[in-house]
Amino acid sequence: MLCNYVFIVVLCFYSHITEFFNCFKTELGCQNFQVVFRYVKLYVQSVGSLNYGGQCSGRSRVVIVAAGKSTRMSGTDKIFASLAGQPVILRVLQPFIDCIRVDRIVVVLSDYNYDEGKELIAAQNWDKEVAVCLGGKRRQDSVLAGLKLLGDCDWVIVQDGARPMVTEDLIVDGLAAVKETGAAVAAVPATDTVKVANEKMIAYQTLPRENLWLCQTPQVFNYDMLVNAYRSTKAEVTDDAQVVELTGGKVKLYLGSYDNIKITNPGDLATAEMLWKRREQ
Q1: Where are the domains of the chain?
Q2: How many Å apart are CA 86 and CA 78, to the nearest integer?
Q3: Kindly report the CA angle at 23 between 19 and 29, in degrees rounded to 5?
Q4: Most buried in the list 14, 197, 243, 268, measured by CB within 10 Å?
Q5: Which CATH number does 23-280 carry?
Q6: Residues facing 87 on adjacent strands
Q7: CA nearest 113: which of 94, 132, 85?
Q8: Helix axis angle, 2-28 relative to 33-50, nearest 10°?
Q9: pTM > 0.85: yes or no
Q10: 195 vs 205: CA distance, rounded Å
């Protein structure tokens, strides 16, 4: 019996160390101690909150937002672009299909890609329910449409339809981190210097990098918290965490991955192809 416990501990430790160094490769070459320190600190917090079995209980469902117009993709809809032989949207969906914590998924599509997207998803032989719906003019309108179709649940995971490098580990870590405040977002430390400029492109402020984090998806929320936040604000937001912040909620950051890129132009797709090949090696 003791040997079994030792094996489980070693296996868990090994999986976390492997994930850490996969995420950490970019930072090892930059010799930036502050970034390294922040990365280690947030990673330790993430592992501590996970605690294997410490995930939030209750039903977890997913809204995948894929209703953009792909205006910077040279005429190609990014969710149908090929990534290692599969459409990007299927690459996004697969980790959520594989995650046993997720029991239902809604993919939000636009007028431009609805028919093709619905047909593609219907053709998959998945044993998990994946529904589709039309989005709105703004991202937040699309998220709300997805939430309505999703149905009542305990936790909702919002995912960009253009982040195909998402992993099941990032999903599970988010479901662990969300317990603290009811809202959790995958994020990585900023490695570039960020300046604020006026309309004439004259920089007038440099932001302290040690406080800057680049937010990604998955973003995980208490279902009622997110729905009520959207209903009570009219403000334009760039991600779902922002609407929670605007309504007084606290958002927990947990460690994302530098590989977890968002595809917005053909160069991003080429980068994702390279990252995917590296993942399969």
Answers
A1: 23-280
A2: 12
A3: 130
A4: 243
A5: 3.90.550.10
A6: 82
A7: 132
A8: 150
A9: no
A10: 6
